[in-house]
Amino acid sequence: MERSSLSISNNIAEGFERRTTQELLTFLYIARGSAGELRSMLLFLERLSAFGNLKSEISDLRSQAESVSRQLRAWADSLQNTDIKGQRYLNNKTRRAAAASDERERFVEELRRCQEENIARAQKAGQGKN
Fold it and tell me: How many other CB atoms are there within 10 angstroms of residue 38's CB atom?
Protein backbone atom coordinates (compact mmCIF):
# COMPACT_ATOMS: atom_id res chain seq x y z
CA MET A 1 0.00 0.00 0.00
CA GLU A 2 2.87 2.33 0.76
CA ARG A 3 4.40 1.69 -2.64
CA SER A 4 1.19 2.25 -4.57
CA SER A 5 0.39 5.45 -2.68
CA LEU A 6 3.92 6.75 -3.16
CA SER A 7 3.75 5.75 -6.82
CA ILE A 8 0.87 8.19 -7.30
CA SER A 9 2.91 11.27 -6.40
CA ASN A 10 6.11 9.94 -7.99
CA ASN A 11 4.39 9.43 -11.34
CA ILE A 12 2.87 12.90 -11.23
CA ALA A 13 6.32 14.35 -10.51
CA GLU A 14 8.00 12.35 -13.25
CA GLY A 15 5.36 13.28 -15.81
CA PHE A 16 5.65 16.95 -14.90
CA GLU A 17 9.42 16.88 -15.19
CA ARG A 18 9.21 15.41 -18.70
CA ARG A 19 7.96 18.85 -19.77
CA THR A 20 5.52 17.75 -22.47
CA THR A 21 1.78 17.58 -22.13
CA GLN A 22 1.63 14.13 -23.73
CA GLU A 23 4.15 12.62 -21.33
CA LEU A 24 2.46 14.27 -18.36
CA LEU A 25 -0.82 12.73 -19.51
CA THR A 26 0.80 9.31 -19.75
CA PHE A 27 2.14 9.55 -16.21
CA LEU A 28 -1.16 10.92 -14.86
CA TYR A 29 -2.85 7.78 -16.16
CA ILE A 30 -0.13 5.64 -14.57
CA ALA A 31 -0.67 7.54 -11.29
CA ARG A 32 -4.39 6.92 -11.64
CA GLY A 33 -3.65 3.22 -12.04
CA SER A 34 -1.67 3.32 -8.79
CA ALA A 35 -4.66 4.95 -7.09
CA GLY A 36 -6.76 2.07 -8.39
CA GLU A 37 -4.29 -0.44 -6.95
CA LEU A 38 -4.49 1.31 -3.59
CA ARG A 39 -8.30 1.29 -3.65
CA SER A 40 -8.24 -2.42 -4.49
CA MET A 41 -5.95 -3.20 -1.55
CA LEU A 42 -8.07 -1.10 0.79
CA LEU A 43 -11.23 -2.88 -0.35
CA PHE A 44 -9.53 -6.21 0.32
CA LEU A 45 -8.44 -5.10 3.80
CA GLU A 46 -11.91 -3.82 4.56
CA ARG A 47 -13.29 -7.32 3.96
CA LEU A 48 -10.78 -9.10 6.22
CA SER A 49 -12.12 -9.79 9.69
CA ALA A 50 -8.67 -9.13 11.19
CA PHE A 51 -9.09 -5.44 10.25
CA GLY A 52 -12.71 -5.13 11.41
CA ASN A 53 -11.74 -2.59 14.08
CA LEU A 54 -10.27 -0.34 11.36
CA LYS A 55 -13.25 -0.35 8.96
CA SER A 56 -13.96 3.35 9.41
CA GLU A 57 -10.34 4.39 8.82
CA ILE A 58 -10.05 2.08 5.81
CA SER A 59 -13.28 3.46 4.38
CA ASP A 60 -11.98 7.02 4.82
CA LEU A 61 -8.75 6.10 3.02
CA ARG A 62 -10.73 4.53 0.17
CA SER A 63 -12.76 7.72 -0.17
CA GLN A 64 -9.59 9.78 -0.32
CA ALA A 65 -8.08 7.46 -2.94
CA GLU A 66 -11.27 7.78 -5.00
CA SER A 67 -11.06 11.55 -4.73
CA VAL A 68 -7.43 11.52 -5.88
CA SER A 69 -8.41 9.35 -8.84
CA ARG A 70 -11.22 11.75 -9.82
CA GLN A 71 -8.85 14.73 -9.54
CA LEU A 72 -6.25 13.01 -11.72
CA ARG A 73 -8.93 12.26 -14.32
CA ALA A 74 -10.12 15.88 -14.32
CA TRP A 75 -6.54 17.12 -14.70
CA ALA A 76 -5.97 14.70 -17.58
CA ASP A 77 -9.21 15.82 -19.25
CA SER A 78 -8.20 19.47 -19.02
CA LEU A 79 -4.77 18.71 -20.49
CA GLN A 80 -6.29 16.80 -23.39
CA ASN A 81 -8.24 19.90 -24.35
CA THR A 82 -5.31 22.31 -24.40
CA ASP A 83 -3.33 23.55 -27.37
CA ILE A 84 -0.15 23.85 -25.30
CA LYS A 85 2.18 20.94 -26.00
CA GLY A 86 4.19 21.45 -22.83
CA GLN A 87 6.99 23.54 -21.35
CA ARG A 88 9.55 21.90 -23.60
CA TYR A 89 7.81 23.47 -26.61
CA LEU A 90 7.35 26.94 -25.17
CA ASN A 91 9.35 29.71 -26.77
CA ASN A 92 8.91 33.48 -26.86
CA LYS A 93 6.44 33.29 -29.75
CA THR A 94 4.19 30.72 -28.07
CA ARG A 95 4.42 32.54 -24.73
CA ARG A 96 3.34 35.81 -26.38
CA ALA A 97 0.48 34.05 -28.16
CA ALA A 98 -0.69 32.42 -24.91
CA ALA A 99 -0.45 35.75 -23.05
CA ALA A 100 -2.41 37.51 -25.81
CA SER A 101 -5.09 34.82 -25.69
CA ASP A 102 -5.36 35.14 -21.90
CA GLU A 103 -5.62 38.92 -22.23
CA ARG A 104 -8.40 38.59 -24.83
CA GLU A 105 -10.31 36.21 -22.56
CA ARG A 106 -10.01 38.62 -19.62
CA PHE A 107 -11.18 41.51 -21.81
CA VAL A 108 -14.20 39.59 -23.11
CA GLU A 109 -15.10 38.52 -19.57
CA GLU A 110 -14.90 42.15 -18.41
CA LEU A 111 -17.16 43.19 -21.29
CA ARG A 112 -19.69 40.51 -20.29
CA ARG A 113 -19.61 41.65 -16.69
CA CYS A 114 -20.17 45.28 -17.71
CA GLN A 115 -23.00 44.27 -20.01
CA GLU A 116 -24.70 42.28 -17.25
CA GLU A 117 -24.36 45.25 -14.88
CA ASN A 118 -25.86 47.61 -17.48
CA ILE A 119 -28.77 45.24 -18.11
CA ALA A 120 -29.40 44.93 -14.37
CA ARG A 121 -29.34 48.74 -13.99
CA ALA A 122 -31.71 49.18 -16.93
CA GLN A 123 -34.11 46.60 -15.50
CA LYS A 124 -33.99 48.26 -12.10
CA ALA A 125 -34.62 51.69 -13.65
CA GLY A 126 -37.53 50.24 -15.63
CA GLN A 127 -39.09 48.80 -12.49
CA GLY A 128 -38.85 52.18 -10.79
CA LYS A 129 -41.01 53.80 -13.52
CA ASN A 130 -43.91 51.39 -12.97
Answer: 25
